[in-house]
Amino acid sequence: MGSSECHTQMIGRRDFLSQLSAAVAGSTFALQNACASKNTELADNSGPVTPLPTIRLGDHKVTRLIVGSNPISGYSYMGPVLDQHMREYFTPERIVKVLWKCEQEGINTHQFSRPEQMADVFGKLRDRGSKMKFICLHASGSQYTSIEQVVQSTRPIAIVHHGGVTDRLFRDGKSREVHDFVKRVHDAGVLAGVSAHNPDCIKRIADEGWQVDLFMTCFYYITRTPEELEKMPPVVTVQVGRVFFASDPLEMTKVIRQVGQPCLGFKILAAGRMCHDKQSVAEAFKFAFKHVKATDGVIVGMYPRYHDQIRQNAQYTREFAAP
Q1: Which pTM was predicted?
Q2: Domain at 164, CATH number
C-alpha cells in the first residue's frame, strides 16, 4: 500500500486491529535484536557527513529533521512497560551521547520539553563543543519553571506552547492564555510558537494573525474529546490507549500548507505505529515531506537502543526532503 492510500483509508474494526498489531510489532522491533546489539549505534562517526536539508526559523538555520523529546522523557504512547524501558535507557549521560550522535549525523536541532531535566545535559554538550540548537515545548502556568528561567537555564532558540494544553485551552474558550504566552516568549527575547494536535487551532491562529514565528503540528489529532470520538467512524468496541485515525495526517498537512509560518510536523510515525519495518518508516517520511511546505520540517523521537534510528532517519530526510 502506498503512503497516500495508507493515510487516506479510514480505520474500520478490522483495520484498527491490524494496525494495533503492527503497533505492538513496531514497539518491540528494536527489542527483538537486543541480544545481537552492543549499542554500536552511539559510536563516534569519524567520517564526513552529507549535510541535511535546512529551513529558517527566524535568523536560525535548522535541519528539516529535528530530534524529538518523547523517548528521552519516557513517553512511548505504547504503555507503561515501554515507557519504563525508555526511562531506564535515557540516563543523563546517555542523552548526551545520543544528542552528540545526532549532531554527528547532521541533525542540528533538538526539541525538548523538560528544562529541569535538560539544562545540565545541554551544558555538557556545549562543553563538548556541540553547536546544537534547542526548541523548548512549554505551557502557560507550567508547574516547573517560568519562561525567563527556561531561557536562562537552557538558552533555546524558540519556546513553543504545549500542544495538549493548546487544544484544551481553545476548547475551553481560553485561547487568550496561549496568545499571552506567545507575547511573553517574545518579551524574553526568543522565537515564539504554538503547538497543537487539532488543526483547527492552527488555522484559527493563522486566520487571526497572531505574531507567531512557527507552529508545531501533530499529524494525528489524539486529543479528541469523547464527544468528538463518537462522531468519528467506528474503530473498535473497546478503545486501547489513544486512537490514531489514518485520515488525520491529510487534514493537518492541508492546514500546514495554508499557513505562512514554518511548521514542524510531529508524530509522523504515529508514535511508533508506523515503525513495524523499514519500508513503513520510509513511507512515513516520504509522505511527510511530500505533503508539507519546503519551509517546513519534522520532529521525530528516536530510541536507538538496538538499531541506528538516528542514521536511518537522517538518510530518509536526505532522500525525501532535498530541494
Answers
A1: 0.86
A2: 3.20.20.60
